[in-house]
Design goal:
Blueprint (H helix, E strand, L loop, with lengths): L4 H26 L24 H29 L8 H24 L4 H24 L9 H26 L2 H8 L3 H25 L7 H26 L5 H25 L18
Helix pairs in contact: 1-2, 1-4, 1-9, 2-3, 3-4, 4-5, 4-9, 5-7, 5-9, 6-7, 7-8, 8-9
């Protein structure tokens, strides 16, 4: 039985909101607005700090607003999946509960980020949780309308390995960015190991996604959505590499290029999560015992 359209619409909008959450968080870091609101959860003691509003305060305030919208939407998804559990898949309430738990952890890490003055380990944990949440919700969205043609098991393995490589590369990027290692390396030669590790991590992530895209050509006929998603992932990787090179050539002074780099990374994580969701095997329906026909003689 297909799930109610409202669930598909809600999860689809959640993916968009989570991509925006990651990108706005990146823009907040680029503009050094992480502490533009010095308190939490309010901003300058109020819900809307009109008198203190500027670009930095707006970015930090809007980042928190988007996180609140995501929290409420995931709570709604969990409530609807429980309320309409007879109309949706049996796995959805558990998946929605895990997503809600991740966003609560994300909110807690966001508070610690402010209270501990942007401590690097907390900032990285905040980013990693956001990416895991984005990947998970994207997988839920695709899982709600799986492919009619079963996908081979080797596809699931390739999707998992490439997804882990992409997440590791994002983690290395977060470790580098949270320490401002790239500007320090280019200006004074300090912290260059983080930049080198991020550049080296691009190789397994790129190769993994390219292998995923090439292997998609060998999928059975009818697997159109996984094939399109894999080719989209390859296009995003190529764009990401180009943006990374452009950022380095510009000495990381172009904020727009840096934010675009983070946007493409978020989209790539969402696409890989979608592929992973499609690659999961379909639940085996319970086999009902045949009914005995009563014969009247």
């Amino acid at each position: 039985m297909p799930p109610p359209p409202v669930l598909l619409g809600l999860t689809g909008h959640l993916v968009v909101a989570l991509v925006a959450l990651v990108v706005i968080g990146g823009a907040t870091r680029v503009t050094q607005a992480g502490l533009a609101c010095p308190d939490w959860p309010l901003c300058y003691g109020g819900v809307l700090p009109i008198s203190q509003m500027n670009l930095q305060v707006f970015l930090e305030w809007f980042h928190r607003l988007d996180a609140l919208v995501v929290l409420l939407a995931l709570a709604t998804l969990l409530g609807m999946s429980v309320w309409r559990r007879d109309q949706g898949p049996a796995w959805l309430p558990g998946a929605a509960a895990l997503a809600l738990l991740l966003v609560l952890i994300q909110a807690g890490l966001g508070a610690l980020t402010v209270l501990h003055l942007l401590a690097a380990p907390i900032v990285v944990a905040h980013l990693l949780t956001a990416l895991l949440l984005l990947s998970w919700v994207s997988a839920i969205h695709q899982r709600l309308h799986p492919e009619e043609v079963p996908l081979p098991r080797w596809w699931a393995l390739i999707a998992l390995v490439s997804g882990l490589a992409v997440l590791m590369q994002c983690l290395l990027g977060g470790l580098m960015a949270s320490r401002w290692a790239a500007p320090l390396c280019l200006s004074s030669g300090l912290g260059c190991r983080w930049l080198v590790w991020h550049l080296q991590g691009a190789w397994p992530a790129t190769i993994g996604v390219l292998v995923l895209a090439i292997s998609a050509l060998r999928l059975p006929q009818g697997c159109r959505r996984p094939r399109r998603l894999a080719l989209t992932a390859a296009l995003l990787v190529a764009t990401q590499v180009a943006l990374g090179v452009l950022s380095l050539r510009g000495q990381l002074t172009m904020a727009g290029t840096t934010v675009a780099h983070q946007l493409v990374a978020a989209l790539l994580v969402a696409v890989i999560g979608a592929i992973w969701g499609l690659s999961l095997p379909s639940p085996t329906p319970a086999v009902q015992a045949p009914l005995l026909e009563v014969v009247h003689g």
